[in-house]
């Protein structure tokens, strides 16, 4: 585990987003960093495609009913 220095405004955005997404502030920051890293590694994929790819890698299979709900 390390310490990352970030801008105060970004920290506030992370804090607000973490509340909405029911994640800790650290988990929200980690999520955004992971998605950003994956987006840079796969620049042709959309956000939704990246999330689907990660869910598939974790053997999470969403049914059409859940996706359209």
Automatic annotation (TrEMBL):
Protein name listed in UniProt: ParD-like family protein
Q: Which organism is it from?
A: Sphingomonas montanisoli
Q: Cite the source lineage.
A: Bacteria, Pseudomonadati, Pseudomonadota, Alphaproteobacteria, Sphingomonadales
InterPro entries, alphabetically?
ParD-like (IPR021831)
